[in-house]
Amino acid sequence: MRELTYYAAVTIDGFIAGPDGQFDGFVFEGSHPAAVGEKYVGAVNTAMADAIGLPIDGGPFDTVLMGWNTYAVGLPDHPSPYSHLRQIVFTREHTAPEGADGVDFTDRDPVEVVRALKAESGKGIWLCGGGALAATLRDEIDRLALKRNPVLFGGGIPLFAEGGYAPERWRAPVITPYESGLVLAEYERG
Fold first, then answer.
1. Which domain holds residue 135?
2. Pairing with 110, which of 7, 95, 133, 174 sits 20 to 30 Å away (CA)?
3. How many angstroms separate the CA atoms of 176 and 185, rounded?
4. Cβ count within 10 A of residue 21
5. Domain of 73: which CATH number?
6. Given pLDDT bands bounded at 50, 70 and 90, which one contains residue 81?
């Protein structure tokens, strides 16, 4: 069965973006981008990968899931941001913009969609964001791969949107620190 991995950058105070959706405070320099990129090949915007010569084939994922706000970060320049992957955007209010070839926009229940995807054959499924979608899919997430950045935002979009409090323990089989201060923390459902 395929696994759903929530792979995202996050601050040490638990935010995936600032109050206005900004993410420019994350650490992009140092030794970690190449090392993390090698482990998670293909988990980068197709145009960016092409522009800087990053490989996109052979990675752990063949499908990427996004909420509308995560998807819209790249608009209007990148209406099909991960064209090398199967792209699914969850939205009830928006329609496909021009040029969004290969992107499936759906208002279906994310849990039902993920369960159907997991039953298919293929590689892993990448939950790219955002926090509201992650909260909806919380019980379906098999792995967390968090690029914990050494910054505080003090507010913004949390890794998981607020919801019912239900403590849950996860195992951390791999923690990899980098000189830049970023820590790749990979967790498995406990």
1. 4-189
2. 174
3. 6
4. 14
5. 3.40.430.10
6. very high
